[in-house]
Amino acid sequence: MDKPSTTKEEALTPFDYTLSIIGGKWKMKIMYQLAFHGVTRYGELKRRVPGITYKVLTSQLNDLESDDIVKRVEYDQTPPKVEYSLTLRGQSLMPILEEICKWGVHNVPDSLTLNELQ
């Protein structure tokens, strides 16, 4: 992720910071699944986020982990076992995501399909 400029003219606003954490096509979907299902293994998460590739899921999880939104626990066993969950910081974002969902429920046109959004 590119680091934002810190010159006075281009100072990072709180809004910009929040969008840098949750922005993009996949991060909010990943966070929602972790909030709804709790601790989730990588393969389960891949199945629960339709359309995401393994590469993108890994990248997005790494970003969310580095921003302290997602916790990753790797178990030393064969086969490998990795679990993901929301941190307290990640959980604190969930009311915002819920409000975004509510807005969508009340404002999505009846004729709009998921394929048209992608």
TrEMBL record:
Superkingdom in the source lineage: Bacteria
Entries under Gene3D superfamilies matching the protein: Winged helix-like DNA-binding domain superfamily/Winged helix DNA-binding domain (1.10.10.10)
Pfam family, one: HxlR
UniProt keywords, alphabetically: DNA-binding, Transcription, Transcription regulation
GO MF terms held by the record: DNA binding
SUPFAM superfamilies on file: Winged helix' DNA-binding domain
Residue ranges of domain HTH hxlR-type in the record: 13-112
PANTHER family in alphabetical order: TRANSCRIPTIONAL REGULATOR (PTHR33204:SF29), TRANSCRIPTIONAL REGULATOR, MARR FAMILY (PTHR33204)
Protein name: HTH hxlR-type domain-containing protein
